[in-house]
Amino acid sequence: MHSHRVSVALSTLLALSSIPLLAKTPATLAPAAPATACPTIPMAAPDAGAVRTPSLADAWGGPRRADAATLSDRVVSYSIDAELDPAKHTLRGKQQLTWRNRSAQPVCSVYVHLYLNAFEGPGSTFMTEQRASEQGFRSNVATRDGEYGYIRLDKVAQGGQPAKWTFVQPDNGPKTDRSVVRIDLPQPVAPGATTTLDIDFFDQLPRVVARTGYYGSFHLVAQWFPKIGVLELPGERGATAPRWNAHEFHLHSEFFADFGSYDVRITVPKDYTVGGTGQLTGKPAERGGKVTHRYVQHDVHDFAWTADKRYAKPLVKTWNGPLGPVEVKVLYTPEYESNAEPVLQATIDSLDYFSKTLGAYPYKTATAVVPPYGADEAGGMEYPTFFTADSTKMVEAGSIGRWMLDFVTVHEFGHGYFYGILASNEFEEPMLDEGMNEYWDQRMMSARGQHLALERPWTRWFNIGFRIPPFQMERLGASLADPADPLGRNSWTRLSSGSYGTVYSRTATTMRQIEALVGTPAMERAMKLYYERWKFRHPSLADLRDTLAEGTGKPAIVNAAFDAYIYGTGRTDDRVESLSSNEVLPLPGYYEYQGRQVLVGSKAIDKAIEKHRKAWKDKHPDAKAGKGAFPYRTVVVVRRDAAKPPQVLRIRFADGSHRDFPVTSQESWQRIVVTTRAKAVSAELDPDHLVWMDANKLNDSRMLEAQPAASRRWFGDFAALLQSFFALLATA
C-alpha cells in the first residue's frame, strides 16, 4: 500500500473511532444497577482454576439418583425462535430465558455471554490475545471485509419491563471487549424463585472460525444466542461464597453453563438441510418457501446446529444401547461422501465403548457433521448430542487421513461425556474436558488396535514405515522435558498456544501413568465411580483427584501425580547414572582363625585366588558361559530429577536371570548394591513401561559386556577358599 493511501486509511480509521457504534449499541445500554437491597455477588477471579478443595457432597444438587425425575438439576431453560438468512449469513432470534436462583439471597443482576462478539473486531479479548500470540484471525485463510461477526441485543425485558444492560470485562480484558454483559433486573429474583427474560437479538455470523460461522452455503451456528452465566454456591468448585462464573471469551477458552432444557425452532429456506442438538420434534412446517424445524432436548447445557443446501441425504443408523435406541446421523456434502461411513462407524463404536467403560449414553440422538471443503475450522468441535468431525480425501484403512478421521470422530463424540455429561468448567480447568477426553479416547483407539501409521502408499510399496501406538504418540507431544504451565491452570493464563496444546497430550500421559501404577482394573473402577458420582454435575480437579484416590485405593500415587504434574510443573527424568559389576575377591588383612588373629598378605591372597580358580575349573570342566569361581558385586546409581514417582530397576545377569529393585527415594539419587552368583550385564529403569512421564527414556538403561558367571555354590566355595588360606598359614 502506498504511503498516501496508508495516511488516508489511518485518518479515516481515527475518525471512525470517534463515532459511536450506533448500529450495534442498544438504546437501553446503561451502567446503573437497580436500587435494591440485594447484596453484591462477586465474579469468579480472573485467575481461577486448579481447584484444590473438593466440592461438597450435595453440590449441584448432589449425585443424581436413579429414581430422579430428571437427569440433571435443571437450572435454566431456553425457548428460541431463530430465522437464518443464508445469503447475508445473519440470524434474527427471539428468546425466552427462564432461570432459577439457587442461592439463599436475592439476585438483582445476571451475567450473560455474548460469545459472537469475540469476532467483531480487534478490540475483543479473543483478537487481542490472538495478536499477542502472533496468530492470524484464522489459521488457513485471509480475512476479508465483511467476514467478521457479532451479536446484538435489541431488547431485554423482565415481565414486560425493559431491563438495562452494560458490558463488563470480568477478567480485566480490554474495555472494548463485549463478550459478557450484565443485565440489571427491574425485579429481584428471590431465593429459590425463577424469572423469565424476553430477549430479541441479531447475529452476524463470521466466516467460519473457532467453532462457528459460514463458508458458502454451509453454516455452523454455535455460541449464537445470549447465554446466562453460572451462579456458583459455597462448596461448589472451590467457591466459599456465591459468585458469578462468566469469563470473557478468550483465544483458548471454551465454555461453562448450567444444565437445562432447550426448545429451539429454526427457520431456513426449504432447500436447506438442518441438523442440531437433540431430537427433531414433529414434522417440519413449511410456509412461504421456508421450513421451520423444531429441536427439543433436556438435560444439556448448550445447543448448536447446522444448515446447508449442499448436504447429501444424511446417513442414518440406529444403535441399540443399554437405555434404548439411539439415532445416529451423519451430515456431509458430496465431495466427502467417502467420509460418511467411517464417521458413522466410529460414532457407533464410540457409543459402545463409552457406554461400557464409563456409563450408558443417556440421549436418543447423536449427530456428526463432516465439514465441507474450505470450512476446516468448523471441524473437530463438540456440543451435546452434536459434533463436527474431520474431513479427508485419504480414507484408506491404515492411512494417516483415516486415522485422523477416526480419532477426531472418537474425540468429539467423547466430549459428549467429558464436557457434556461431566460438565466441567472449560474456561478454568480445560484439563478436565480436553485432557481427560484425550486420555479416554486413546484408550479406545488402543483397544481398537488403531495405531498412527507414518507411511504413504509409495512407502508401503517398498515395505517402509512404522506405526506409533496412541499413548506413545501422546508422549511425543507432551513437552515432558520442560512444561511451562501446570496442567490445572486455566485456559488463557498460559505461556503460549503450544503450552495450552499440551493440556491434551500431557494430561493423557499423566493419566496413563497413574493407570500403569495403580493397575488397569483399579483405574477403570475409579473412572466409573467418577462418572456415576459427577454425571450431570460440574466436577473440579479436586473432585477428580479425590474420586481417583478413593476408587483406585492408591491415594499416595494419585495425590503425588496431581501435586507434581497437575497442580505443579513437575518433570520426571530418572536415569541410570552408572553400572559396575566386579568380582568379589578375598582381600589382605587380619582374619580370626582358631582363636587368634592371622595376617593374610597380598602374595598369599593372590596365590590362593589363582589356586581356587584352577580348582574350580578342574571341578567344572563343562561350565557354560556365565559361571565362574567368584561372586560379583553390582553397583547401580540412579539419578532422580524433579518429580519422583516409584520406579523399578531391573538388573539382568550373564546367566539369563534378572532381579527387580524398588526405586523410591525422594533424594536426587539412589544406589542399589547387590552380590550375586553372576555378573550383571545391564540395568534398566521402568522395564514394564509404567512411568510415562519420564521425559527421556533413552537414558533409562546401561549395558556391560557379558562375562562368565559365578558358581551357583559360591558361598560354600568362598568359605572353603578362606579355610584353605588359614590351613595354609597354620601349616606354614
Notable features of this structure?
35 strands, 28% strand, alpha+beta, disordered N terminus, 5-stranded mixed β-sheet, elongated, Immunoglobulin-like, 732 residues, 13 helices
Overview of this structure, please?
The chain has 13 helices and 35 strands. The chain is an alpha+beta fold and 732 residues long. Among the domains are: 14-61 and 69-308, Immunoglobulin-like; 575-731, no CATH class. The strands form nine sheets. Strands 1, 2, 4, 5, 8, 14, 16, 17 and 18 form a nine-stranded mixed sheet that branches. It has a five-stranded mixed sheet with strand order 20-21-22-24-23, with helices on one face. Strand 1 (76-85) and strand 2 form a beta hairpin. Helix 4 (400-414) packs across helix 5 (434-447), helix 8 (497-518) crosses helix 9 and helix 9 (520-534) packs across helix 10. The longest helix has 22 residues, at 497-518. The chain is elongated. The relative contact order is 0.09. Residues 1-35 and 706-732 have low confidence and may be disordered.
